[in-house]
Amino acid sequence: MTSAAAWTILPLPEGAVEVHLVRRVRKSIGIRIADGRVELIAHPRISQARLREVLLARQDWIARHVVSQREQKQQLADLTVLSYLGRELPIQLAGGLRRTARLEGDVLQVCGIAAGDTAGLQAVVTAWLKRQAQLCFAQRLGRFAAHCPRQPGKLALSSARTRWGSCTARGDIRLNWRLMQAPLPIIDYVLAHELAHLLHMNHSSAFWAETARLFPDWKNARHWLKQQGSSLFRFG
Questions:
Q1: Which of 22, 100, 175, 227 pairs with 10 at a CA distance of 20 to 30 A?
Q2: Nearest CA to 221 among 175, 163, 182?
Q3: Which ranges of 165-230 does DSSP label H, i.e. alpha helix?
Q4: Which whole-number Å values give the CA distances from 170 to 114, 142, 153, 212, in the listed order?
């Protein structure tokens, strides 16, 4: 990796990453990811505007590889605790043949997983979080929708790496299931953000005013996501 100063910063839900530009005679534009930053390799004649275009087009791919590299560095001990609605739950392996998880008091019991089976543990906990997300998000959406002049459409889960939620022109809303690991006010902020798009499909001052009407503490919640959002990508 080059030691030169970063060319730009690419914001990702997992945390911003540095992008270093390397000029080299070659036919295609190359992207290399290592040590938590991105290296963009391109011919000297390729414009910076074109490079930014390629960077944004490959944003999801970059996010997946950044997360994958970070996960590879994590030890198995990192998977002994789950953040659930902002509180830490110990993960306890239990017997049984069926792979499932259940909440027992303040402990998440995972059944049917052998000690050391990291992939299996990841899959079971992810499935459990998605089930909880379906229930929680629907309940919170109903609470907010009662105060919206325009009612939302369908609600679905998202596994996106680069956004926490989305709202279509039809009013359908998708929320990232990983938000179940965040404190409840963070979920409420993302919901309010997407519901505000029912009236304003942009990020104008009117949009932020509607977000504030639905969720007054949105600035602190957005700051939390920028600072802590990377911690929500340990599973899935």
A1: 175
A2: 182
A3: 184-196, 205-214, 218-228
A4: 45, 17, 7, 22
Compute the distance between CA of residue 200 and CA of residue 148 in angstroms, rounded to an integer: 12
Among residues 115, 44, 103, which one has the least CA distance to residue 76?
Answer: 115
At 111, the amino acid letter reads C
Look at the alpha carbons of 190, 196, 198, 201 in this order and tell me if their dihedral is positive or negative.
Answer: negative
Phi, psi at 116, each rounded to 5°: 95, -5
CA-nearest of 133, 135, 174, 130 to 152 is 174
Query: Where in the chain does DSSP place strands (E)?
Result: 8-10, 17-23, 30-34, 37-42, 81-84, 87-94, 100-104, 107-111, 155-158, 165-167, 173-176
Give the C-alpha separation, 146 to 101, whole Å.
33
Residues ≥6 apart with Cβ < 8 Å to 49: none
Show the low-confidence residues of the chain (pLDDT under 70). Answer: 1-4, 71-78
Is 121 in contact with 138 (CB distance < 8 Å)?
no
**Rounded CA separation 234/236 (Å):** 7
The four Cα atoms 128, 130, 133, 135 give a dihedral, to 10 degrees, of -70
Half-sphere exposure of residue 81: CA atoms within 13 angstroms, side-chain side: 10
∠ CA 107-111-112 to the nearest 5 degrees?
155
